[in-house]
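Long-time lurker, first post. I've been practising inverse folding by hand and with some scripts of my own, and I keep getting stuck on stretches where the structure tokens seem ambiguous. Below is the full token string for one chain I'm working on. Before anyone asks, I'm not after the true native sequence, just a reasonable design that respects the backbone. If someone could post their per-position residues I'd love to compare against what I wrote down in my notebook.
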């Protein structure tokens, strides 16, 4: 039988790491994020967040450390009694964490305020393998990382403080057991529930909307801008085509990072620098999961090209219309001629 504190630790992560392996066709990443700000020895604030891929599952209220659910399908994963146990376990863990860090800061004369960050999680793959990770940060810099193979904490920076925290974490039994569950049990055995409940959210697809426009920072340079927005999930491929051929990476091509929108979709921009009136045709090509095997292709041309294309299309339309009119007139006259000949033939017979 598992010790009570081991069972509580398992419950703490149970809902945050779950899904259906039969439906798993790609890798998924779960992250548990903790940010604790130590203003002084008596004033400490902690914020926590649980994420499945880019979906925010829930957070901790920094005032009372209560869990706030962001997705309606997270809360039903466990009964109320289990959630009450998890609430208690979170409070026990954070009180211990605050005490240990404050104690170390005083022993090593660490100046206040400072920020401690913890990230733990795992990636799971369709072949049922997993890669776990855990990191500790200090004031926004890498501080410690966890070596999964031998279950030891490694220094990211060698200081008196980092060596002290390394020793504390190595001897912090409750935290070590939490990491042990995360690495050896939870990622594989307890992931099914969350993936099952979050299946619809994970499979959500929103197609991108793309526009192309130009800017002229100088008379000798033209910037073609392809703005792609409103897409989900995050992975996307945006490329510029010159005369139908993909433009390779280079100094004239600049693509932004993928940025979030307020509606839980994403956006990016790809900018291509060209010489005005260089005689080439350009188009922005967008590939995304929501489009299936299709691609969005948004062409652009400078004024001359657009004008020529417009005249060509207009001339073609005019010629087509003229041909239709001529054909209609010819058929009308032919019909009238046949009717006239038919009447003349009838009159001649009657005479």
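-- Answer (accepted) --
I ran through it position by position. Result:
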């Amino acid at each position: 039988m598992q010790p009570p504190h081991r069972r509580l630790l398992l419950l703490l992560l149970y809902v945050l790491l779950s899904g259906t392996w039969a439906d798993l066709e790609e890798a998924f990443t779960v992250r548990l994020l903790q940010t604790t700000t130590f203003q002084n020895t008596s004033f400490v604030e902690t914020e926590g967040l649980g994420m499945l891929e880019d979906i925010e599952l829930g957070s901790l209220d920094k005032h009372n450390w209560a869990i706030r659910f962001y997705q309606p399908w997270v809360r039903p994963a466990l009964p109320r009694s289990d959630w009450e146990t998890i609430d208690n376990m979170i409070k026990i863990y954070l009180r211990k964490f605050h005490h240990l860090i404050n104690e170390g800061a005083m022993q090593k004369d660490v100046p206040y305020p400072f920020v401690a960050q913890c990230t733990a999680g795992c990636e799971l793959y369709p072949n049922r393998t997993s890669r776990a990770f855990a990191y500790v940060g200090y004031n926004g810099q890498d501080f410690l990382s966890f070596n999964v193979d031998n279950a030891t904490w490694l220094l990211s920076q060698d200081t008196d403080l980092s060596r002290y925290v390394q020793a504390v974490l190595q001897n912090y039994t409750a935290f070590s057991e939490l990491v042990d569950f995360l690495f050896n049990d939870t990622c594989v055995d307890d992931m099914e529930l969350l993936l099952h409940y979050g299946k619809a959210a994970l499979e959500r697809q929103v197609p991108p909307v793309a526009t192309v426009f130009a800017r002229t920072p100088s008379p000798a340079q033209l910037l073609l801008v392809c703005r792609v927005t409103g897409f989900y999930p995050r992975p996307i491929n945006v490329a510029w085509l010159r005369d139908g051929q993909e433009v390779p990476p280079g100094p004239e091509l600049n693509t932004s990072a993928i940025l979030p929108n307020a509606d839980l979709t994403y956006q990016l921009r790809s900018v291509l620098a060209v010489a005005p009136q260089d005689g080439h045709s350009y188009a922005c090509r967008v590939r995304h999961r929501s489009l299936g095997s299709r691609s969005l292709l948004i062409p652009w041309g400078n004024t001359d090209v657009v004008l020529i294309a417009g005249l060509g299309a207009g001339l073609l339309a005019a010629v087509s219309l003229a041909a239709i009119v001529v054909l209609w007139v010819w058929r009308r006259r032919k019909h009238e001629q046949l009717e006239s000949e038919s009447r003349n033939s009838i009159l001649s017979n009657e005479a």
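A couple of notes from the structure itself: The chain has two domains: 4-202, 209-304. The chain has seven helices and 17 strands. Happy to go over any region you disagree with.
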